[in-house]
Structures are given as C-alpha cells and as structure tokens.
Amino acid sequence: MSDSFEKRIGIAGAKLLSTSEKRVKKSLRRLGLDVIQQTPVDQGVLVNNWYSSNRQVIRKTTKQADRTGSKSIARLEKAVARFKLGQTFFMSNSVPYARVIEFGMYPNPPQNPTGKTVNGFSRQAPQGIVRIAMQKFKARIKGAS
Description:
This protein has four helices and four strands. It has helices at 3-38, 70-82, 98-103, 130-144, and strands at residues 51-53, 90-92, 117-118, 121-122. 48% of the residues lie in helices and 7% in strands. The longest helix is centred in the first third of the chain and has 36 residues, at 3-38. The model has no long low-confidence stretch (mean pLDDT 91). The chain is mainly alpha-helical. It has one domain (3-144). Helix 1 packs antiparallel against helix 2 (70-82) and helix 1 (3-38) packs antiparallel against helix 4 (130-144).
C-alpha cells in the first residue's frame, strides 16, 4: 500500500474519532443539563449538589444554595470538556433527600404538610429527575440512529 493511502486512512480515522467524541460530549452535556434543569428548586441546595466527573463518582455535598444550578452546570461543563472516548462519565448527587425526590419516598400522608408533595412525590418532579432525563436521552439516541 502506498504511504499516501495509509496517511488518508489515518486522517479519516482521526476525523471520525474527533466527530464521535464531539457528538458524545454534546449528548452528555444535554443529558446533564436535563438533570440539572429538571431538579426541583426550593432553597437551591439539591440543584447545587450535582457533581459530574469522568474519573469517579463524587460523593461530596455542599450546604450552599444556588437556585440557578449554575455551579452544577459549571461542574458539568468542566467534566464534559475533560471527557475522552472510552472513559466513563459519572453524575451524582449525594444529598440524602435526592433519592427521596427521585423515587417519591416522602411519607404519605405527609407528617408536616407543606403542599410540596402529593402521594409521596414531589409536586415539581412527580416522576423523578434522572429517570425522566434518561428517557429523553434514549429517545434522542433512537432518533439519531
């Protein structure tokens, strides 16, 4: 084989990998934004505790409120920028009540009624956060294929 053919194959392969990585990063970013933007906001602690990483699950929490989710979005953007094909992407929220909101595990009837829950589920996220974002993600992937 000629050197120019091998060189063209190498260039085409590199472009394909670059394009694939860009698409994966775009998909991860959209998934992460869906999770953050669908997170119910009361004081802003839950939405501020989304941590993204391409290295490991981050189990830390902060008590700092951020009703906009901008700090979680910044962490997402940083992790997506570092992401390389072949790595695992992690997104976690270790606030103890995150699981309660995701799966509707509030006491039913409420012990201290506030109007924020119905039948054990958050009024703002009655079908969860991550589960809904994953359904959207799967639909986008199916639509792209």
